[in-house]
Design a protein that fits this description.
The protein is α/β, with parallel strands linked by helices. It folds into two domains: 279 residues, no CATH class; 89 residues, no CATH class. The protein has 17 helices and seven strands. A hairpin with a 2-residue loop joins β1 and β2.
Length: 376
């Protein structure tokens, strides 16, 4: 599981240290920009924060009433072959059903009782993924969540979704879900993926959603060759215009080597879209890396303005300069380095409050030993 996914599961703490990823000096990619462009390609190497941004966009859509349904579509290691459009559509329809269930429950506290058409729509979507939902729904109906930190949202990790806000348990929620339980013996949904996806879009509209954002991630989970990754997303890219007409928009979080072949192969297709996509590439230089680190320190309750303030007088240069250089433009690598540095300092000289050059040398040695051990 990506580090960002684990951290978002801790709840609102995620937003205490989230920073907009940098595009170039003085320019950041904000969530509001993504919400406005509707279709986007975001590029960055592993560890650059693509999944963090995807999670932040998902959480923003679920926390603020933009009338936007966020649908998570992760390829991951289960994508063992290049899927056809129909296979993509069926998988998408199932993920939409899971997300509509979750986000409907999240909204119930602030809505009037759902209408009969809305309950029918939710029942249809629950039936589509009932084997995945069954145990979660049983727990929702039977357990007491009044003393849980996130309320009913404590259930969402069971469905591979984070808890992004407190969801109050109530009799109203239980009544609605009980009324929407799929009837035993109902026939299975149509096997046609496109039909299922269209039905999901229609049911989302009944629940007041004006648009749907599909967040495509983990394309490089199995194989990082550009040709293979491009083939995985090709059925989606080729039909972007068709789904834009249904108010369904795709955001792709991709490794940088895919940008040239995408722009070359699909230039005309993408230029002719009713909503042209945005293209964004992360560039983590020292300043944004340190901004991220300082935000983390504040979120942890530290009063220190940065790690240079925690460096001993033996330093002739800057500890933060050394960290930025060794991080090699990767926020994940930076945070792992800092974690190792803190562990090394605590082990070597826990009574001494300041970090020494010797701590840093030992950190680099341990770091490189671990890198060599993990290299095939």
């Amino acid at each position: 599981m990506p580090v960002a996914e684990q951290e978002l599961r801790q709840g609102e703490v995620f937003f205490d240290y989230y920073v907009n990823p940098p595009l170039q000096p003085g320019e950041e990619l904000s969530l509001q920009t993504l919400l406005q462009i509707r279709t986007g390609f975001v590029f960055g190497p592993p560890g650059s924060g693509k999944t963090t941004l995807r999670l932040a966009l998902e959480a923003e859509c679920r926390s603020v009433d933009y009338r936007t349904l966020a649908v998570r579509y992760e390829f991951g290691r289960k994508m063992t072959h290049v899927p056809s459009p129909e296979e993509h559509y069926r998988a998408l329809a199932e993920e939409l059903a899971v997300d509509l269930f979750i986000q409907a429950v999240e909204r119930l506290a602030s809505l009037d009782m759902p209408s009969s058409p809305q309950r029918d729509a939710l029942r249809r979507q629950m039936r589509l993924v009932w084997p995945r939902l069954r145990r979660t729904v049983q727990l929702l109906l039977q357990e007491d969540f009044s003393d849980r930190e996130n309320g009913l949202a404590d259930l969402w990790p069971r469905l591979n979704r984070p808890a992004v806000r407190y969801v109050p348990p109530s009799g109203k929620v239980k009544r609605v879900i009980e009324e929407c339980l799929p009837a035993d013996g109902t026939p299975p949904p149509s096997p046609q993926g496109e039909t299922l996806l269209q039905a999901g879009i229609a049911d989302a509209r009944l629940w007041g959603y004006r648009q749907i954002f599909v967040l495509v991630d983990e394309v490089d989970a199995i194989e990082r060759t550009a040709g293979r990754m491009l083939a995985l997303i090709a059925p989606l890219v080729e039909h972007l215009a068709r789904w834009q007409a249904e108010d369904l928009f795709f955001f792709f979080f991709l490794p940088p080597e895919l940008q040239p072949p995408l722009q070359k192969t699909y230039r005309q297709t993408l230029e002719n879209l009713p909503f042209p996509p945005g293209w964004f590439t992360f560039r983590w230089e020292k300043e944004p890396l340190m901004k991220l680190l300082h935000r983390r320190l504040r979120a942890a309750g530290s009063r220190s303005p940065g790690l240079d303030a925690l460096a001993s007088g033996e330093w002739t240069g800057s500890l933060e300069d050394e960290l930025a250089r060794e991080a090699a433009h990767s926020p994940r690598r930076l945070l792992q380095l800092v974690s190792t540095l803190v562990d090394v300092h605590a082990r070597r000289d826990p009574q001494r409050p300041l970090i020494t050059p010797r701590d840093w040398e030992e950190t680099l040695k341990q770091w490189r030993d671990e890198e060599r051990a993990s290299t095939p």
